[in-house]
Design brief:
globular, about 700 residues, alpha/beta, Glycosyltransferase family 1 protein, six-stranded parallel beta sheet
Length: about 700
């Protein structure tokens, strides 16, 4: 009886063809096994026709050696790595008379099987296999022996080669690992070896990245920087140099470090962009995009308690200001006609637009929709799945700005032109993709207003906005205006847009409520999901208070801390979780969770905290103060000591510089129920008179209507 082994990498698209072939094999007296490298249940075949089995090793059962081998192997070899580990399948292919590859991905596996069973015929496809079955194979003994010897030699040679490669790879990995780079002698050797002459750029670059990563993980960033610089000085290709420096910086960012070679990597990418600018705008845009990806990485600005952008915007952005390609991104192209004055013979057409986030627009939309002299249209660029991808690609915007006409630019024109032609005034909330896209083409006579919140100042999007086509830029605080003008020089000068400081639109009248007497011992923090909110600062304040009186407790209102954004966020989250695990069982901390009824949550809060390292305004604090909670505001470190900040935004008696000062203020103001209630009433009166929508809406009327 002839035994046939069919190998299938995937379930056949036409199972009927396979079943028909199996019936022919059976009619010729053959016994058939089908080896599946997928779920055998996907191939329902009568057991009388063939034995069907699956042979993929489940992920949870793969040992370290197999995982490494699969990770390095080419796609066509992965099947063979699974097959050779199965003893049952080894017996089958060594005993088979005919080996058949059912699809292209299984050809290599059948070839490997045939090298180990030279007696069997090997074929790709069912038709050749059927022909071979009808034509018995005859071969002289000498020829068969020669083929067997060649197969055995080939197997040995390939195995030796793979073993040699694996040995070299393992040796190099160990020799360049963090233990070696953590040793002064090892670091000294490799920092010179990587800069040795006549080493090919490709090998030198890979070695440099490996050594840099090992040194960083060993806690020696200075050695890592020296090693990378030594290698880069020997690399002739500008693209390879930029790639090495960028990978080195990215590896440090992934570990939560501010890379010592960050500016060197940014400058290398920008130099590459400048070199490509004239002849290849696409490559220039890719390089600028990589530079901005490094510069706006969240580890630098959002998941740490400080930011180089806030510390010294000019120094941080100096490489971009020196680059011709980066400067071209924000180059003023002007508008063909100035914005037309508001119409007097019909309602003003107001387009309010954003991307995803409309959190700060509800009061604005409600007010102007109710006005008979205003016609409002709202556009969220994320809503339409057909056009959504156009709004989510910064690199494509860069490519358009650095080149000439593009199909992308034409699609944006087709998408947004009807809105621009309709609107008298366009209010763009958030200075990100929406602002860049609405200034990509001439806005006609529509007046363009852009509101910049906080995070955009640390992002690349404002640098893609043509502010020569923007009439007004709005900030919610003076300190944010100061930071933004330092980051964006195009916001200053004779041709710059008008700059406004207009508070957030907040309906605060619904917050004042009677509080229970014991609320004076409850601290509240609205929003604690990010490092920038620094909830551990509040924990520190709470600990100091409980040293005096264990009645003090903390309520955390909002989503839980998000530790998935980066390693620094994960590290911070781990420490916060440890704090909560200690204090929650004592009743000292309570997580209120996300809620749509914030006024109800704040009714139990007697002291409202602002513990952030940066805020543009901090609505949660103001809402808490409106409820009658006593405000305690940390002097936000990003802006502390500067002309404007939390100290110029809020009353002086709200302000503290440290957890100790915060505890001091709280102990004083909550010493008696009467003192606490009076301080809360005073805070509520102040915010209602200063920031309630009934007060601030006049500023929006002046901004949007020109009244």
């Amino acid at each position: 009886m002839t035994t046939v082994l069919i190998v299938a990498a995937a379930a056949p698209k036409q199972p009927a063809v396979l079943i028909e072939a199996l019936e022919r094999f059976r009619s010729r007296g053959a016994r058939v096994t089908v080896a599946c490298f997928f779920d055998a249940a996907d191939l329902p075949i009568d057991p009388a026709l063939a034995e069907v089995r699956s042979f993929v090793v489940p992920a949870e059962k793969r040992d370290a050696r197999l995982r490494r081998a699969l990770g390095r192997a080419q796609a066509n070899r992965k099947l063979w790595l699974h097959a050779q580990r199965n003893s049952w399948l080894r017996q089958r292919y060594r005993a088979a008379d005919l080996l058949v590859a059912l699809d292209p991905r299984s050809v290599h596996t059948v070839w490997e099987m045939a090298q180990r069973n030279t007696r069997a015929g090997a074929h790709y496809g069912l038709v050749p296999a059927q022909r071979a079955l009808d034509t018995p194979r005859t071969e002289p003994v000498g020829k068969r022996l020669e083929r067997q010897m060649a197969a055995v030699a080939g197997i040995g040679t390939r195995g030796a080669k793979r073993a040699a490669v694996e040995t070299v790879r393992t040796t190099v990995q160990k020799a360049t690992g963090q233990r070696i780079m953590g040793n002064p002698a090892g670091a000294w050797f490799w920092s010179r070896a990587v800069a040795a002459p006549r080493v090919p750029d490709r090998l030198r670059s890979k070695l440099a990245v490996r050594l840099h990563d090992s040194a960083v993980k060993a806690g020696r960033p200075a050695v890592a920087a020296r090693t990378a610089s030594a290698a880069v000085s020997r690399i002739s290709s500008a693209a390879t140099r930029a790639d090495v420096l960028t990978k080195a910086a990215q590896s440090e960012l992934a570990l939560g470090h501010v890379p010592s070679g960050l500016h060197e990597a940014i400058r290398a990418q920008l130099a590459l962009a400048d070199a490509h600018l004239a002849k290849d705008p696409k490559k220039a845009a890719a390089a600028v995009s990589r530079a901005w990806s490094l510069a706006s990485n969240r580890v630098l600005h959002f998941d740490r308690l400080s930011s180089p952008m806030s510390d010294d915007p000019g120094a941080f952005l100096a490489p971009f200001r020196a680059s011709a390609a980066a400067r071209k991104l924000s180059e003023p192209r002007g508008r063909l006609a100035p914005a037309a004055p508001a119409p007097t013979d019909r309602p003003l057409r107001l387009l309010v637009t954003t991307l995803i986030n409309d959190n700060f627009l509800q009061e604005i939309l409600e007010r102007y929709r109710a006005m008979p002299n205003v016609e409002v249209r709202f556009l969220d660029l994320y809503e339409d799945p057909a056009t959504r991808p156009l709004a989510l690609s910064g690199s494509t915007v860069m490519e358009h700005l650095l080149g000439a006409e593009s199909s992308y630019g034409a699609k944006i024109e087709e998408w947004l032109r009807p809105h621009l032609d309709w609107a008298d005034t366009v209010f763009v909330d958030w200075c990100q993709a929406t602002a860049a896209l609405f200034t990509l083409h001439d806005p006609g006579t529509a007046r363009i207003i852009v509101r910049l919140h906080s995070f955009e100042a640390f992002n690349f999007w404002p640098h893609l906005v043509d502010f020569s086509r923007v009439d007004d830029v709005v900030f919610v605080s003076e300190h944010l205006r100061d930071l933004s003008t330092a980051v964006l020089p195009q916001l200053t000068g004779a041709a710059a847009p008008r700059l406004w400081v207009v508070d957030n639109a907040m309906d605060l009248q619904r917050y004042p409520r009677d509080k229970p007497a014991d609320a004076r011992f409850t601290l509240g923090l609205v929003g604690f999901s990010s490092v920038a909110k620094d909830p551990r600062w509040a924990i520190d304040v709470l600990r100091k208070l409980r040293e005096h009186d264990e009645r003090y407790n903390l309520t955390l209102i909002g989503s839980n801390f998000n530790n998935r954004t980066s390693k620094p966020a994960k590290d911070y989250g781990r420490l916060l979780a440890k704090d909560l695990a200690e204090l929650e069982p004592l009743g000292a901390v309570r997580r209120y969770g996300q809620t749509d009824d914030v006024p109800a949550a704040l009714q139990e809060v007697g002291v409202i905290l602002s513990t952030s390292v940066r805020e543009s305004f901090h609505c949660g604090l103001v809402e808490g103060a409106a409820s009658g909670a006593v405000p305690v505001v940390r002097d936000w470190p990003f802006f502390a000591g500067k002309p404007h900040g939390a100290r110029t935004l809020f009353p002086a008696d709200w302000m503290v510089g440290s957890p100790a000062e915060a505890a001091e203020r709280i102990l004083a103001v909550t010493a008696t129920e009467q003192a606490w209630a009076e301080a809360g009433r005073a805070a509520s009166e102040h915010v209602l008179k200063t920031w309630d929508w009934g007060v601030t809406r006049a500023d929006y009327d002046r901004l949007l209507l020109g009244d």
